[in-house]
Write a structure and sequence with these properties.
Blueprint lengths: L5 H19 L5 E2 L8 H9 L3 E2 L13 H6 L3
Parallel strand pairs: 1-2
Helix pairs in contact: 1-2
């Protein structure tokens, strides 16, 4: 996400948080940039949208999931 424009960052965060809210019925408060790729702009935009940015150090193996299964989890 660190290499895209601010407007695209906001658009992608909006899209995913709205979709997750639709699915879960819960207010989305946490954000993790895809693949952990972020910069100061990403952090600022997420914070301005009321999100707390998190990271983790465990490999999610999301790049190893079969394409058809991975597609069902995309926002």
């Amino acid at each position: 996400m660190g290499a895209i424009s601010d407007s695209k960052i906001k658009e992608e965060i909006d899209l995913c948080t709205k979709k997750l809210n639709q699915i879960t019925g819960n207010k989305i408060e946490l954000f993790r940039a895809p693949y952990g790729d972020y910069n100061g702009n990403v952090l600022r935009i997420a914070k301005n949208q009321g999100l707390y940015t998190i990271q983790w150090d465990v490999d999610s193996m999301d790049t190893k999931v079969k394409d058809d299964m991975a597609e069902s989890f995309r926002c």
